[in-house]
Amino acid sequence: GTQDTEYYVRECACFALGQFSEHCQPDILFHHQTILPAIFKVLEDEKPSVQSTSCYVLEMFCENLQPETMRPLLNVVVPKLLRLLQIAQPSTKEMALCALAAASVAAEIDFLPYAEECC
After folding, report:
1. What is the CA radius of gyration of the chain?
2. Which pTM was predicted?
């Protein structure tokens, strides 16, 4: 799915993960060690539609993630999302900002060291 050579397969795989993340809460959260690394990888995809869809997954997934789960992921996810905010198309930037907001809410006070980078 998310590693397929065809971009539309990667995009559809991300969309499916986003739907699971949105509609299968809280059970989907038990799979964060499998899902999040796959999403982190496709945040760097060359296709804007895949980048955007992976941001959607991240937003939906992080909405109910506990701070202790989100904390160790911040060093990985924040730089990737900030990079998208600098280089991506406007629609992808919007999705990256939403994912960053969800990550910050999930991380609570642990996001504070990253706040200055985001502004």
Report:
1. 13
2. 0.92
